[in-house]
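Exercise 7. Given the encoded structure of a 350-residue chain, write a plausible sequence.
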C-alpha cells in the first residue's frame, strides 16, 4: 500500500488522515455560498473539498423520475431532472472554485459523471478524481479515470464484493496505479448498526490498496474510530448551514461539527501513538517518583555488611529496583546511609 502525494499532502500509512469536506451540491448553485463553504472548510481544518461536476444527461434519461427528500424540516418531492439541474456547475464555475481552493490552501477535487467531466478536471489540474458509489458499476468511466494517471478514489457503498473487484480490476487493467477505496454505507444518515467499520481492513487485505471511509453517519464517533482500523482518508458531507434549502444539508456537518470532528480525529491520531512496549516520555517523572527502590530500613554506618533486615521496598524509584533486593545481602557499605535512603550501586564496595 504505497502512499499517494496529493497537492502538498501525503495520503497513506504514517501520515495524518486526509480529511475531505464533501460540499457536493450544498452550494445550491450559488457561487457565493460555494466560496463561503470552501472558506469554512479550510478554517475547520479540512485538507480538501469535493464538488460534483456532473451533467444531468449523463445519468438521467427519464424526466418523469421523482426524488423525495427532507429540506428545512419538510418533505419535498420533485422531478430529479429539475433538482439536479439547479446544482449543475459549468466549466467556468469549476475553474473559479479551483482557484478559490488554491487561494485557501485546500485541495480541490470533484466527482465527474462522464468522459467530458473527467477531461475538465484533468485540464483544471485536479490532483484527485472521485467515483461515487452510484457509479461503481460504470466500468467504462472507471477505466477512463485510470487512463488519466490521476489518483482516483472509488466509493463502495451498496456494493457486493464482486462489484468492488470488478471496479478495482477495471481501474488496474486500464493502467491505473494510485487508488483509494472508500468504505461507505449509502444511507443518509447511516444507522450505527450499518456502519461496519470492520470492513476497512478487509478491503485493505483483499485489494492491497489504501482504504478510507466515506462517513454518512451522524456525529464524529465513526470517523474517529475508523482510523483505528487503518482509514487514511475520511470524507464527510459539509454545509454552511443545515437549515439551507436542498436535499443534502440536513444530514451534513456544519462548520462547528466539522471542526469538532477534525480536532477529535487529530487527538485520536496522537493517542494511537506507537506500538513499542516502553515507557512514554511523559512517564519518566512517574518512574522516578512513584516506582519503588530498595531503601535503608534504618541509619546504617559506613562498613555495614547488609543483611535482609536492613532492606525495605519504598518510594522513590531512583535506586536499585526491588527485584535485585537479594543481590544486596552481603554487600558492604562504602558510605553511611540514612534511614529511607534509596540504595545505589556506588554505595557499596566492589
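Solution.
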Amino acid at each position: 500500500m504505497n502512499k499517494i502525494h496529493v497537492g502538498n499532502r501525503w495520503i497513506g500509512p504514517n501520515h495524518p488522515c486526509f480529511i475531505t469536506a464533501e460540499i457536493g451540491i450544498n452550494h445550491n448553485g450559488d457561487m457565493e455560498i460555494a466560496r463561503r463553504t470552501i472558506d469554512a472548510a479550510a478554517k475547520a481544518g479540512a485538507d480538501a473539498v469535493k464538488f460534483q461536476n456532473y451533467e444531468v444527461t449523463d445519468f438521467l434519461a427519464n424526466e418523469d423520475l421523482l426524488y423525495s427528500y427532507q429540506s428545512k424540516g419538510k418533505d419535498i418531492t420533485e422531478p430529479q431532472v429539475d433538482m439536479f439541474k439547479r446544482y449543475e456547475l459549468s466549466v467556468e464555475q469549476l475553474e473559479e472554485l479551483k482557484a478559490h481552493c488554491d487561494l485557501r490552501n485546500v485541495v480541490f477535487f470533484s466527482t465527474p459523471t462522464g468522459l467530458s467531466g473527467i477531461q475538465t478536471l484533468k485540464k483544471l489540474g485536479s490532483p484527485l478524481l472521485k467515483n461515487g458509489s452510484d457509479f461503481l458499476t460504470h466500468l467504462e468511466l472507471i477505466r477512463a479515470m485510470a487512463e488519466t494517471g490521476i489518483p482516483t478514489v472509488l466509493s463502495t457503498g451498496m456494493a457486493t464484493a464482486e462489484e468492488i473487484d470488478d471496479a478495482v480490476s477495471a481501474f488496474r487493467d486500464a493502467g491505473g496505479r494510485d487508488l483509494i477505496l472508500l468504505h461507505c454505507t449509502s444511507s443518509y444518515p447511516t444507522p450505527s448498526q450499518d456502519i461496519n467499520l470492520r470492513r476497512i481492513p478487509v478491503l485493505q487485505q483483499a485489494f492491497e490498496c489504501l482504504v478510507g471511509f466515506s462517513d454518512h453517519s451522524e456525529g464524529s464517533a465513526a470517523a474517529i474510530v475508523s482510523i483505528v482500523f487503518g482509514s487514511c482518508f475520511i470524507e464527510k458531507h459539509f454545509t454552511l448551514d443545515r437549515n439551507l434549502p436542498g436535499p443534502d444539508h440536513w444530514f451534513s456537518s456544519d462548520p462547528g461539527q466539522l471542526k469538532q470532528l477534525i480536532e477529535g480525529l487529530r487527538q485520536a491520531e496522537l493517542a494511537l501513538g506507537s506500538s513499542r512496549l516502553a515507557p512514554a516520555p511523559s512517564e519518566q517523572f512517574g518512574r522516578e517518583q512513584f516506582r519503588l527502590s530498595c531503601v535503608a530500613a534504618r541509619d546504617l554506618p559506613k562498613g555495614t555488611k547488609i543483611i535482609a533486615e536492613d532492606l525495605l521496598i519504598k518510594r522513590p524509584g531512583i535506586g536499585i529496583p526491588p527485584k535485585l533486593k537479594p543481590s544486596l545481602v552481603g554487600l558492604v557499605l562504602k558510605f553511611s546511609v540514612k534511614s529511607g535512603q534509596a540504595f545505589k550501586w556506588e554505595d557499596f564496595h566492589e
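Remark. Residues 281-347 form a domain with the Type Iii Antifreeze Protein Isoform Hplc 12 fold (CATH 3.90.1210.10). Students should compare their own answers with the one above.
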